[in-house]
Design goal:
Chain lengths: ~230, ~230
DNA sequence: GTAGTTTAGTGAACAGTGTTCACTTTTCGA
DNA sequence: TCGAAAAGTGAACACTGTTCACTAAACTAC
């Protein structure tokens, strides 16, 4: 029983990988459509024509399986955000695109994104897997996605477009929170984008753009009288 | 079986209310400490010394019970945000306090706040309870909390402190998203406030204040060259 | 090629969940 | 006091994740 990453070059190893992948594929299919509550081990087993207990030869628990889905999703998210922040365009366009990509990728796979933030921090030390310090966090896909934001802030500051008084990591955390929040509201609040008194026909994309513009505005260099209000830590 | 709001002036009615409240109290106690996963009907029944099926004489389902907890929490949230936005202080202080109160109240009851946004919108019409239009939403406690934000934006615009080019409801939605996101990250990302490369000693409150300041900055009146970027819908 | 040891896969079972339903007991109004 | 309505119960149903003894296949070493 070796569910991690050892050599898989022997025929048996390939066969094992094939089965494992088929489990993940089936799980992905169900999960994307119905989320965590729709995905049961027994249903999964039925879908791939194995017995429920067989799955436990490939994954230690349901949680580990779902963690794989979440990590894979975050890798994708990180990749897309990174790509759009490296495009060959003026900085402000790239910055905006980067923010918009984050929210759109998240909302396109609502169950994945929602599940990725569904566990709650326990104040005790019962979850040893949680990255405690900065370096550990930065090896996570979440951490990598976050570092894209930090780089973006720093580049904006270097260009003189963003306020240099802002601590880049703080500003990036603030940005992350704002993006995350919009994604969550779009996912969890029914018809969030249509929540307008006169029932305007604004699309989700329109509002995401509006939000991104507002965030960028907050980061921009300000008259001294305003900027001095911001404490950097 | 009448689980809603009829007259409760008769002795039997009072007794019924007492039992119902004791169920809610027990549920609240467990839920605040362990969240939805720790709260089972059987455990709840044990705690109040009734049989599990007795609970179904008072609540139609576990979901209805939890919905009550969530609504009560949101009423409290709304109340606190409203209070801090009506204090006798300069506008900017009130605005900041209002934003900070939202996040702090949310993070003080992590399971309540997380649970309040845990259901996912179904594109079909399977959830008839979801408020579809603006007016219906505004009768919700969520809606009322939201309207506090709208009022705040409008007051800031009237005072000339916030950019009048911003559509108030859009700006409020953007604000809500940013606050919601910070609350969620603090709740769901372990040690979010301590996520600093040099392990600075910034507290959660410090960061919430930083975030609020940044948001207010984004709303403030801008030079025309910047403000024209914002589309209002 | 055969013996022995891993590995793959299974079915039954355990402990738990929300929920229902026939049933008894209590309460209360006429 | 009688009868109806409500309160409360225990057993059962259909699920869930997970474990474990067990068999069947596959690989390693002689």
């Amino acid at each position: 029983m070796q569910t991690d990453i050892p050599v898989e070059k022997t025929p048996a190893g390939r066969r094992r990988k094939r089965v494992r992948d088929s489990i993940i594929a089936a799980a992905e299919k169900v999960f994307a459509r119905e989320g965590e509550s729709g995905l049961s081990i027994r249903r999964l087993a039925e879908e791939i024509d194995y017995s429920p207990s067989a799955i436990y030869k490939y994954f230690e628990s349901k949680e580990e399986l779902i963690d794989q889905l979440k990590e894979a999703f975050f890798e994708r998210l990180m990749d897309r955000v990174d790509t759009s922040s490296n495009a060959d365009r003026p900085f402000e366009d790239r910055a905006r695109a980067c923010l918009i990509t984050y929210v759109e990728t998240a909302t396109n796979r609502p169950y994945h994104y929602a599940a990725a933030f569904s566990s709650i921090e326990q104040k005790d030390e019962c979850t040893p897997a949680a990255p405690k310090n900065w370096d550990e966090f930065m090896t996570t896909n979440k951490g990598k996605a976050f570092s894209v934001l930090v780089n973006m802030v720093e580049e904006g500051q270097a260009l003189g477009m963003f306020d240099r008084a802002l601590e880049p990591v703080h500003a990036a955390k603030s940005l992350w929170a704002s993006l995350h929040g919009l994604a969550q509201l779009v996912i969890h609040v029914p018809h969030f984008e249509r929540l307008i008194p006169d029932d305007g026909s604004a699309t989700t994309t329109d509002f995401i753009t509006f939000h991104a513009n507002l965030l960028i505005r907050g980061l921009q260099a300000q008259p001294a009288s305003v900027a001095k209000d911001i404490k950097t830590g």
